[in-house]
Amino acid sequence: MKKHNLVSRLELTNITKQYPGCLANDNISLTLMPGEIHALLGENGAGKSTLVKTIYGVVAPDKGDIIWNGKEVSIKSPSIARDLGIGMVFQHFSLFETLTVSQNIELCLSKTQLNEIGDLAERITHLSAEYGLNVKPSRYVHSLSIGERQRVEIMRCLVQSVKLLILDEPTSVLTPQEVSGLFGVLRTLSNEGCSILFISHKLHEVTEICHKATILRGGKVVDTCIPQRETPASIAKMMVGDLAEQDAGYTKKEGTVGVFNVEDLSLAAKQPFGTTLKNLNFELKSGEILGIAGVAGNGQDELMAIISGEDERSVKNSLSLDGSDISDLNAGERRKLGMAYVPEERLGRGAVPDMSLTENTLLTHSQGFIRNGLVDWQSIKGYTSELITKYKVKCHGEFSEAKSLSGGNLQKFIMGREIGQNPKVLICAHPTWGVDVGAALAIHQALLELRDKGAAILLISEDIDELFLLADRMAAVCDGYLSPVVKTETTNIDQIGQWMAGTFIKNTSASDKQEATA
Amino acid sequence: MDSDLIVQILFAAVKTGTPLLFIALGEVICEKSGVLNLGQEGMMLMGAVVGFLAAYGTGSAGLGVLAAMIMGCIMSLIFAVLVLHLGANQVATGLALTIFGTGLSAFIGSGVVGQTIQGFQPIAIPLLSDIPFLGRILFSHDILVYTSFAMTFILMFVIYKTRIGLTLTAVGENPHAANAIGIKVLRVRYLAVMFGGVMAGISGAYMSLVYTPMWVENMTAGRGWIALALVVFASWRIGRIMLGAYLFGIASIMHLVLQGLGWSISPNLLAMLPYVATVIVMVIISADKFKEKLLAPRSLGKTFDPRQMA
């Protein structure tokens, strides 16, 4: 990219946005050239989302100028942004589930655009083939997987021939294969001159695909770099400010006694697009972390639901804690026996959105805070604010409503709350999903500390790096089957990756058949 | 039962079903945008009394309908400002609107109770009304009945075939996403609520100008509530609303028919039929979680405040 003979695609100067109690963007300036893939990095609450929403016209800045292709513009609404050629793929997708792909896309287009396109379905099919997106226009969005939905969002931008595509943590919901597919699309777009603004937490992805990076901290630009010349560790350092050990290489431990057992667990899918669990067997020992890898939607949610007791169907003798069958107990009774959970969905399952953090603490933490049937608000408040300080949860205080926290901060709070109960068995899904580097480190250490105290931890995650970092033993799920469980030191990413793709299944079903005939 | 009686019953079903059709069409549009307006009964009563007063004063039933439409619109605007602008709870505000409308209509109509006027006269449509059976059942009515036919087909076209319908569905389905792609959610909702008010006004006018051309306190007798049930019964589909309106119409005149046949069943028991039917439909829909998800507007009854988007 030769800057001197090109007009910049987008130039931001001194963008400032003040929210009550927080300066989200503080004099942010940024330049993007045509075809440039630019990473926007920073911890949760650093102001990345606010900044991209300003560019997309969702948030009005208090101060600062936006220069688009050399001309100063005022982007007052997303429709103005789209008319300029700015498209955005949101972290939480903005699709309408009861409408078809083509209807969803149509809603974003103006009448003139529609007339230009003519047959929208044909155009979608054409673009889909051109970029390898594999999006069928007539399908209903509710029947699509997360990765497919994201491709619909990208398609929505492509149909309008975008000049700047903004992606808010696009890879956090994708499988490794989907990620490489996405990167292929982004590279093609970049070659065609489309600029891309890319928000991510995954630093190796940034070094892999981005041409430039701007690092935000506390609403300010603290650094810029060319990611290809950096390492994930050096970028992480810029993000958190102090030295964060990215790959600390924690010591692996061997569990002592079996605490929690899953035996011959088979369970039909409850949801129309759910996964049927097929004859799962594993033992969770105290003092170990057992990691379960897998691409989303291969039975993790179902496994989590049956272990936590959220799925109320009981499979006799399939689950046992300390040798006694717990499959008839409900979620509350299991918690009383010393089990704790961190579900994938933070708002709605991990926390009640409209309730304060204090009340949310009380929900899973009733022992000790209720005396003679009365709630001891004083001590629960104190405890909650301790959690907030310990896990650096960014919020107004222990009275903040759960829904007012950003995803990563709420995750920190929920992890802290569950770990704080000193559970015998902790089941957690995606513990650091959407959490920034600094906080992820804190969560990792808290998990290891809990393990060293003798707790048995089941870690379900899509982040393979994290599993290799934390888990003492590992397995993978695919299509409701569980692979063999092996020690982390004795396996490698290749093998786990193959298991995630289901290479072990043939053997399993073959042995099933043998058992059946025997 | 001879064929003449059947024709008469079906003719009466269309007539009793028409006010339900008007108000339910208004409510379904309102609900499709994600707003639940429980003030139907109040808006309808205000439409009925104002329509009657205007027709009584001017001698023109047409002006009566116009006045009723304006009144219905004003009532719905009060609701819209409270719910959409000030973020009040939809259920509580809707109930308050009904109570308010019931009381106010009785107050302003007290002077004309028992007075009668010349309402709309039936117009037999040439040719169509000569069709055996159907002609007498469908095409020998007054102008408002024909308007309700036309409204149904216009709405079916608008909702299922146009961009406007797509936008409305999108807003009711996911207002946050709609806002993010630049749809003015509150504006869509304002318009939908006001449309509901206008339709409730016409429905009220139908009661006091055609059905029984007079004003009696609380003359709508719960039709606003039946309409709410009807929308659920029809699972938010326009065509089914028309069908349901006439079915509910038959149910509400059933006691007269049965009496004519010499059976005696308490009319109160028969008056329950629309509600029983609605409950049964609800159970059937809910049995399939997935289907239910596809039918009811997802954001129904939930407040949306674009200022909270950050």
UniProtKB/TrEMBL annotation, chain A:
It is a peripheral membrane protein. GO terms for molecular function: ATP binding; ATP hydrolysis activity. It comes from the Bacteria. This is Nucleoside ABC transporter ATP-binding protein. Pfam families: ABC_tran. Coiled coil: none annotated. InterPro entries: AAA+_ATPase (IPR003593), ABC_carbohydrate_import_ATPase (IPR050107), ABC_transporter-like_ATP-bd (IPR003439), ABC_transporter-like_CS (IPR017871), P-loop_NTPase (IPR027417).
TrEMBL record, chain B:
It is found in: Cell inner membrane. PANTHER family: ABC TRANSPORTER PERMEASE PROTEIN, SUGAR ABC TRANSPORTER INTEGRAL MEMBRANE PROTEIN-RELATED. The chain crosses the membrane at residues 6-30, 42-59, 65-88, 95-117, 137-160, 190-209, 221-238, 245-263, 269-287. It comes from the Bacteria. This is ABC transporter permease. The keyword Membrane applies. The keyword Membrane applies. Keywords: Cell membrane, Membrane, Transmembrane, Transmembrane helix. One of its GO terms (cellular component) is plasma membrane. GO terms for molecular function: transmembrane transporter activity. It is a multi-pass membrane protein. Its main location: membrane. It comes from Marinomonas foliarum.
